[in-house]
């Protein structure tokens, strides 16, 4: 049995779901794949838990029960304050799992954490998009030099991962990637169509259900979808800067617009699109025929179409979601563990 040590940086929705899934599944995974994933450190915004020999399943499940920002209270392995360098000096993780919030101004804290991990010889798995959106080339250059992996399947449609398929289409000339890439705004639009809510009412409902953040700016102004298009553009080797992506605000849509569209057999969707031939990308409000595939993708579902010179592929499923994304992160961790440590 091979032990692979991991550090989990960021312990919110996804961090907790990930540690929980791992605690429940790792014995089974160890039996199936011959590799034991050992959590040697967990970090939130206020503190750290460091146990170089690895948390046991019970400790991992208990840790998931501590209140938000509260892991510094978790017994003798815990301490107040965040110092990721200390994680590396004390526990030397083999894989760094970056689950901190996305900050599209600086990319921090994710960028510094990821670079520290690579410089310390750890492979990286990230669900945080911002470091890749702002610093993709720097991160990949560092990883290449050190012969380390950077996996980021959970950053785009974390619940329905397709980036690895896209990356594998090496003989194809990718012409276009387009779809509904943001679950929050798709939920809001679905509420506007199905329950005739105006935008504000639909947003409030989404917030009450935890589908929209208290500050929904990144979703409703199209930043989140634009960030995903940027990552897609890197994956297909035709980088587009996030600042050059045209974005419309979904807040412009009124109930009257929705009713007008419906009368004409159409629905309004928030479509993210990357034209890889013209090298232009946008996140736009579009009226599409009711029969269109994207018109059928409702609620928190997302969907994407990859069009190449040879084929058209569709992926439809949950955009994010704790358990779904946690599994995608774990799949990346397992892939690194199996490829590099067995
Ligand atoms: N939610 C989804 O469905 C989904 C899907 C795909 C990708 N993602 C991405 O995955 C990442 C995590 O998402 P989430 O929903 O779990 O976010 P979240 O609930 O806000 O959790 C973020 C975590 O990061 C911690 N944190 C903040 N600043 C930190 C710092 N400087 N150092 C260490 N930890 C810090 C927070 O600490 P506190 O607990 O102390 O606040 C919290 O534990 C985000 O980048 C998100 O965009 C999310």
Structural description of this entry:
The protein is an alpha/beta fold and 342 residues long. It folds into 2 domains: 2-159 and 323-341, NAD(P)-binding Rossmann-like Domain (Rossmann fold, 3-Layer(aba) Sandwich); 163-319, Dihydrodipicolinate Reductase, domain 2 (2-Layer Sandwich). Helix content is 40%, strand content 23%. The protein has 12 helices and 13 strands. The protein has helices at residues 13-33, 57-63, 84-91, 110-119, 130-146, 163-168, 183-194, 199-208, 217-220, 223-235, 255-263, 322-341, and strands at residues 2-9, 35-43, 47-50, 78-80, 95-98, 123-126, 150-151, 174-180, 246-247, 266-275, 280-289, 301-308, 312-318. The strands form 2 sheets. A 7-stranded mixed beta sheet has the order 4-3-2-1-5-6-7, with helices on both faces. A 6-stranded mixed beta sheet has the order 9-11-10-8-12-13. Strand 5, helix 4 (110-119) and strand 6 (123-126) form a beta-alpha-beta unit. Helix 1 runs antiparallel to helix 2, helix 4 runs parallel beside helix 5 and helix 7 crosses helix 8 (199-208). It is globular and about 65 Å long. The chain starts with a strand and ends with a helix. The chain binds NADP nicotinamide-adenine-dinucleotide phosphate. Residues 9-15, 43-46, 68-69, 82, 99-102, 109, 127-129, 154, 158, 320-321, 325 line the site of NADP nicotinamide-adenine-dinucleotide phosphate. NADP nicotinamide-adenine-dinucleotide phosphate (NAP) binds at residues 9-15, 43-46, 68-69, 82, 99-102, 109, 127-129, 154, 158, 320-321, 325.
């Amino acid at each position: 049995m091979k032990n692979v040590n991991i550090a989990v940086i960021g312990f919110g929705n996804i961090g907790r779901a990930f540690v929980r899934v791992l605690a429940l599944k790792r014995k089974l995974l160890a039996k199936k794949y011959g590799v034991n994933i050992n959590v040697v450190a967990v970090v939130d915004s206020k503190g750290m838990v460091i146990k170089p020999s690895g948390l046991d399943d019970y400790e991992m499940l208990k840790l998931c029960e501590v209140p938000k920002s509260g892991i510094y209270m978790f017994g003798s392995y815990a301490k107040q304050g965040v110092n990721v360098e200390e994680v590396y000096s004390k526990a030397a993780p083999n894989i760094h799992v970056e689950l901190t919030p996305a900050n599209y101004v600086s990319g921090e804290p994710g960028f510094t954490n990821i670079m520290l991990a690579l410089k310390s010889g750890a492979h990286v798995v990230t669900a945080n998009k911002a470091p890749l959106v702002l610093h993709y080339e720097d991160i990949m250059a560092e990883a290449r030099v050190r012969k380390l992996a950077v996996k980021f399947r959970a950053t785009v449609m974390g619940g329905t991962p397709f980036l690895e398929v896209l990356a594998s289409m090496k003989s194809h000339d990718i012409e276009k990637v387009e779809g509904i890439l943001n679950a929050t705004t798709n939920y809001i639009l679905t509420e506007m169509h199905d329950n005739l809510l105006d935008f504000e009412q639909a947003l409030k409902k989404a917030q009450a259900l935890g589908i929209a953040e208290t500050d929904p700016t990144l979703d409703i102004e199209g930043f989140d979808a634009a960030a995903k298009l940027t990552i897609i553009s890197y994956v297909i080797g035709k980088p587009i800067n996030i600042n050059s992506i045209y974005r419309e605000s979904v807040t412009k849509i009124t109930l009257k617009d929705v009713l007008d569209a419906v009368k004409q057999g159409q629905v309004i969707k928030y479509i993210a699109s990357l034209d890889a031939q013209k090298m232009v990308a946008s996140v736009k409000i579009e009226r599409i025929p009711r029969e269109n595939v994207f018109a059928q993708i409702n609620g928190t579902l997302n969907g994407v179409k990859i069009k190449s010179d040879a084929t058209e592929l569709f992926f439809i499923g949950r955009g994010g979601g704790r358990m779904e994304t946690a599994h995608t992160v774990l799949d990346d961790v397992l892939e690194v563990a199996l490829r590099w440590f067995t």
